[in-house]
């Protein structure tokens, strides 16, 4: 089985560099804010306008007005800000996000990814993923290495509707850390 979800997020968070503005998407990526990465100073950004937040808070300690992209109650770090939705997307669209970390369904070795619609579903919700994929300086993704029925999620090309093409730079799964190389994946850590 490899790493659990928090361990996958911990591994990805160790890729963050000091001073980065990091957008964390819904799902496993939100767990990155729980990771102690020592003296590395990160500003976590959420599409809903919470800028500079910290770990998810346990029950009884939460402020119901402070949530990340996944609706989990988070803490605020010194210097944090709350901005409106339009300003939050202005930060994204102006290219100020150093990296976005997205939860996805599948990724191709050329850097394409799919995260908004599963096979056979009516509709889907692309959300802010396309803005983040187009405007963040880097796109990191986290996903389980295989589906529940054992099918691979790291593919030669995406089978699901693609969210963005050629943008993924780093992939974390429960089995390792990978880099898309165009025609294959490079295993960076196991």
Give the helices and strands, then pairings.
Layout: H1 5-13, E1 21-24, E2 43-45, E3 50-56, E4 74-82, H2 85-93, E5 99-103, E6 106-108, E7 113-114, H3 129-135, E8 138-142, E9 154-155, E10 168-172, E11 177-180, E12 185-189
Parallel strand pairs: 1-2, 1-5, 5-8, 6-9, 8-10
Antiparallel strand pairs: 2-3, 3-4, 6-7, 10-11, 11-12
Structure report:
The chain is of the alpha/beta class and 190 residues long. Helix content is 13%, strand content 28%. The protein is built from three helices and twelve strands, in the order αββββαβββαβββββ. The chain has helices at residues 5-13, 85-93, 129-135; strands spanning 21-24, 43-45, 50-56, 74-82, 99-103, 106-108, 113-114, 138-142, 154-155, 168-172, 177-180, 185-189. It has a nine-stranded mixed sheet with strand order 4-3-2-1-5-8-10-11-12. Strands 7-6-9 form a three-stranded mixed sheet, with no helix packed on it. A hairpin with a 4-residue loop joins β6 and β7 (113-114). It is globular, with a radius of gyration of 16 Å.
